[in-house]
Write a structure and sequence with these properties.
- By secondary structure, the protein is of the alpha+beta class.
- It contains 18 helices and 39 strands.
- It has 5 domains: 100 residues, Rossmann fold, CATH 3.40.50; 68 residues, Dna Ligase, domain 1 (2-Layer Sandwich), CATH 3.30.1490; 246 residues, ATP-grasp fold, B domain (D-amino Acid Aminotransferase, Chain A, domain 1, 2-Layer Sandwich), CATH 3.30.470; 102 residues, Beta Barrel (Lipocalin), CATH 2.40.128; 75 residues, RNA polymerase II/Efflux pump adaptor protein, barrel-sandwich hybrid domain (OB fold (Dihydrolipoamide Acetyltransferase, E2P), Beta Barrel).
- A hairpin with a 2-residue loop joins β24 and β25.
- The longest helix is centred in the middle third of the chain and has 17 residues.
- The chain is globular.
- The termini are far apart.
- Bound molecules: adenosine-5'-diphosphate.
Length: 646
C-alpha cells in the first residue's frame, strides 16, 4: 500500500477519498486553487499545495502543476476523483512518465471508452448488446438520414464525443432529421471540437440502469446495478440500488455483459457500464443496451457501497498498489436498498439556475450518510459545481429506505443560498417514484408540480417575523418576560417577491402574538422555545437580512429595510444582468446596435447548460461590459442600453 497519495480534486469527492485513505493509514496531500484555500478538503488533508487560480483551467485541470505537487510532496500515487482530469488519458500518461501511479484504469482503457462510437464497436465485438443504430465513419448527411430511416423513428442523434447531454437531439419524424442533425453538429463542434455524430434507436419508456464494475487488469466483478432514471435534462437527481423491479435473470445478464465489457479492455479499477433499458413492458434480459462506460469512480457510488458494504475507494487504492481483486463474484451480496439525493445550490422555480452564497447555516440529519465538501460558513462559489452534499439512506427494504430519505431531506437545514431541497423532498414523495414506476421522463412530465415553490402559510410567515425581530428563542423564565415586554414591533418581510407586514405584540407572560393581514397567530412559551398553533416549535433563524424557516421545506425571507425599497423600485430593465453565476459564452451585440424587447443579447453557460439573455425593452446598446470567456457573479451587469428619454 502507498504511504502517501495526492488527491487531484476538490469538494465532496476529495473529502471522501481522504477519509478512506486515512482509515487505511495513508497520508494525503490535497491541492487547491485560489478559491479553495480554506476549503474542507484542504482542512482534512495532511498537507495542501496551492496549484493556481480559481478557474479550473488554471488549477484542477493543470496536469503539470498537479504532477509537480505530487513529486514535491513525495506522494507515490494520484487519485483523480471524478470530473476534471479523471478521464484524460494524456494525464495518465504524464503521471506515469513522472514515475507516479495513477489510481484508475490505464490510458488505453480510457481511450478505448472515450468516444461513444468506438466504444460501441468494441462492445459489439465483445458480445455486449448495444442500442440498434449507426455508429460508422460515414458522416454524410444523406447517409445518416438513410440510417435513421432503417433504424426507424424516433431516433436519437448523439455527438460521438458527447457528455452531459450535449450534442444530443431526439428526432420524431424524417422531415425534421436534417435540421436536428445540423444543430447537434453545431453544438458538438463548439462543446467538444468534434462534430461527428451517431444515430441510434430512441428507446421507449427508457430507464437508465448502470452496473458498477471493478477490475484488477486480469479479472473483473460487478457490484450490482444502480438505477439513475430520475434525471432532469440528462442529469441525475436521485439514484438508487438495486433497481426497482429488477429480476434475477436480467441482473445476471446485465452483470455478465458489464464484466465482459470490462475484461475486453483489461480494465483495472472502478468503472461504470451504463445501459439504457426499454421498460415499456417491465424489465427483460433482452431489453437493455450498452450506452457508454465511465472509466472512473461515479458520483453516485455511495448507493453501491451501502448495499454491498464495500468501500470502493479502498479497493481503488489496493488495486492501484498492485493487489489483485480481494473477492470473487460469489462473495458479493446485496443487502437492503439505498437512495442518494444530490443537494445543490440552485434556484429551481427559475429553471434550476445554479446559485451561489455563503452557507450561513448548515445542518445534516443523523442516521444517513452525508458526503459533503462544505461546512457552515463556507462559500458556494461560481467557479465550481454548486453541489452542497449527497444524502444517502440505506434501509432493509425500498419502502423504508425511501421513508428514511424523505425524513432526512425534511431534517436538512441550509440557509444562505437557495437550494433544490424542496424539489428533492417533493420528488422523494412522488407516488410514481414511490411505486418504483420510474423512467427518464418522470421528472420532465411532473416538472410543474415538482418545481413549484411552496407558498408559506401564516404560521410560517409569523415564525419568520419573530426571527426577524430577534425573538426566535423565548427568554428564559429566570430572565422574566417583563424585561422586554410590553412589546409592539412591526416587521416587513419579503418572500419570493411578495412583501408583507407583521405586527408582533405580547399577550401575556407566556404568549406572543403575530398579526398578518388581520389574522392573529399566537405562539406559546415552552421553556426557552416558542410553540406555534400547530404544536410545532419555531425553527426560524435570522442570518443578516435573511430569515430561514425550516418547516419540512425551507423558506427564505428577506427582511425589508424601508430605505432599500426605493432603490429596488428604480431597477432598470435596460441593464442586462447575469441571472446566475456562470461563464459568458457569447455576446451577440455591439455598441450602437439597436435592439427590440426579447432580442437575444448574450449567451451564458452555467452547470453545463446554456442560457440566453434577452433585451428587457427596445433600445440602443450603449455599453457592452463583458466578453466571451468572462466568469460572472450573479447580478453582474453584462450590457447596458441607452437610457430612454421621455
Ligand atoms: P451523455 O454522455 O451526453 O450524458 P448518454 O449517452 O450517457 O449521454 O445519455 C444520457 C441520457 O440520455 C441517458 O441517461 C438517457 O436518459 C438518455 N438516452 C440516451 N440514449 C438513449 C436512447 N437510445 N433512447 C432513449 N434515451 C436515451
Amino acid at each position: 500500500m502507498f504511504d502517501k497519495i495526492l488527491v487531484a480534486n476538490r469538494g465532496e469527492i476529495a473529502c471522501r477519498i481522504i477519509q478512506t485513505a486515512h482509515r487505511l493509514g495513508v497520508t494525503c496531500t490535497a491541492v487547491y486553487s485560489d478559491a479553495d484555500a480554506n476549503a474542507r478538503h484542504v482542512a482534512l488533508a495532511d498537507q495542501a499545495l496551492h496549484i493556481g487560480g480559481a478557474a479550473p483551467a488554471d488549477s484542477y485541470l493543470r496536469s503539470d502543476a498537479i504532477i509537480a505537487a505530487a513529486l514535491e510532496s513525495g506522494a507515490q500515487a494520484i487519485h483523480p476523483g471524478y470530473g476534471f482530469l479523471s478521464e484524460n488519458p494524456e494525464f495518465v500518461d504524464a503521471v506515469e512518465k513522472a514515475g507516479l501511479i495513477f489510481i484508475g484504469p490505464s490510458a488505453e482503457a480510457i481511450r478505448a471508452m472515450g468516444l461513444k462510437d468506438a466504444a460501441k464497436r468494441l462492445m459489439e465485438q465483445a458480445g455486449v448488446p448495444v442500442v440498434p443504430g449507426f455508429h460508422g465513419d460515414d458522416q454524410d448527411a444523406e447517409h445518416l438520414a438513410r440510417a435513421a430511416e432503417e433504424i426507424g423513428y424516433p431516433v436519437l442523434i448523439k455527438a460521438v464525443a458527447g457528455g452531459g447531454g450535449k450534442g444530443m437531439r431526439l428526432v420524431d419524424r424524417a422531415q425534421d432529421f436534417a435540421s436536428h442533425l445540423a444543430s447537434a453538429r453545431a453544438e458538438a463542434a463548439t462543446a467538444f471540437g468534434n462534430d461527428a455524430v451517431l444515430v441510434e434507436k430512441y428507446v421507449a419508456k427508457p430507464r437508465h440502469i448502470e452496473m458498477q464494475i471493478f477490475g484488477d487488469g486480469a479479472r473483473a466483478v460487478h457490484l450490482f446495478e444502480r438505477d439513475c432514471s430520475l434525471q432532469r435534462r440528462h442529469q441525475k437527481v436521485i439514484e438508487e440500488a438495486p433497481a426497482p423491479g429488477m429480476t434475477a435473470d436480467m441482473r445476471m445478464a446485465m452483470g455478465a455483459a458489464a464484466v465482459r465489457a470490462a475484461e475486453a479492455i483489461g480494465y483495472s479499477g472502478a468503472g461504470t457500464v451504463e445501459f439504457i433499458v426499454d421498460a415499456s413492458k417491465g424489465l427483460h434480459p433482452d431489453r437493455f443496451w450498452f450506452m457508454e462506460m465511465n472509466t472512473r469512480l461515479q458520483v453516485e457510488h455511495p448507493v453501491t457501497e451501502a448495499v454491498t458494504g464495500i468501500d470502493l475507494v479502498e479497493w481503488q487504492l489496493r488495486v492501484a498498489a498492485g493487489e489483485t481483486l480481494p473477492v470473487v463474484q460469489e462473495d458479493i451480496s446485496l443487502k437492503g436498498h439505498a437512495f442518494e439525493a444530490r443537494l445543490y445550490a440552485e434556484d429551481v422555480p427559475s429553471g434550476f439556475l445554479p446559485a451561489t452564497g455563503r452557507l450561513a447555516h448548515l445542518r445534516f440529519p443523523q442516521g444517513v450518510r452525508v458526503d459533503t465538501g462544505v461546512r457552515e460558513g463556507d462559500e458556494i462559489s461560481a467557479w465550481y459545481d454548486p453541489m452542497i452534499a449527497k444524502i444517502t439512506s440505506h434501509g432493509p427494504t425500498r419502502d423504508i429506505a425511501l421513508l428514511q430519505l424523505r425524513a432526512a431531506l425534511a431534517a436538512t437545514e441550509v440557509a444562505g443560498t437557495v437550494t433544490n431541497l424542496t424539489f428533492l423532498g417533493k420528488l422523494a414523495a412522488h407516488p410514481g417514484f414511490a411505486a418504483g414506476d420510474v423512467d427518464t421522463g418522470l421528472i420532465g412530465r411532473n416538472l410543474d408540480a415538482l418545481a413549484a415553490s411552496d407558498i408559506p402559510g401564516d404560521a410560517v410567515r409569523a415564525q419568520a417575523a419573530l426571527a426577524a425581530a430577534g425573538l426566535d428563542r423565548a427568554p428564559s423564565a429566570f430572565q422574566g418576560f417583563s424585561l422586554w415586554a410590553p412589546l409592539e414591533q412591526d416587521m416587513r418581510l419579503c418572500q419570493n417577491g411578495e412583501e408583507f407586514e407583521a405586527r408582533i405584540s405580547t399577550v401575556d407572560a407566556a404568549t406572543i402574538r403575530v398579526r398578518i393581514d388581520g389574522r392573529d397567530i399566537d405562539f406559546r412559551r415552552s421553556s426557552d422555545r416558542w410553540v406555534g398553533p400547530d404544536g410545532a416549535p419555531v425553527t426560524a433563524r435570522r442570518f443578516g437580512d435573511h430569515v430561514a424557516v425550516f418547516a419540512g421545506a425551507a423558506f427564505e425571507f428577506q427582511v425589508v429595510d424601508p430605505l432599500l425599497v426605493a432603490d429596488a423600485l428604480a431597477h432598470d430593465p435596460g441593464v442586462i444582468e447575469a441571472p446566475m453565476p456562470g461563464l459568458v459564452k457569447a455576446v451577440l451585440v455591439r455598441d450602437g446596435d439597436s435592439v427590440s424587447a426579447g432580442d437575444k443579447l448574450a449567451v451564458m453557460e452555467a452547470m453545463k447548460m446554456e442560457h440566453t439573455l434577452t433585451a428587457g425593452r427596445d433600445g440602443t446598446v450603449s455599453e457592452v461590459l463583458v466578453a466571451a470567456g468572462d466568469q460572472l457573479e450573479a447580478g453582474a451587469a453584462l450590457i447596458r442600453l441607452e437610457e430612454v428619454v421621455e
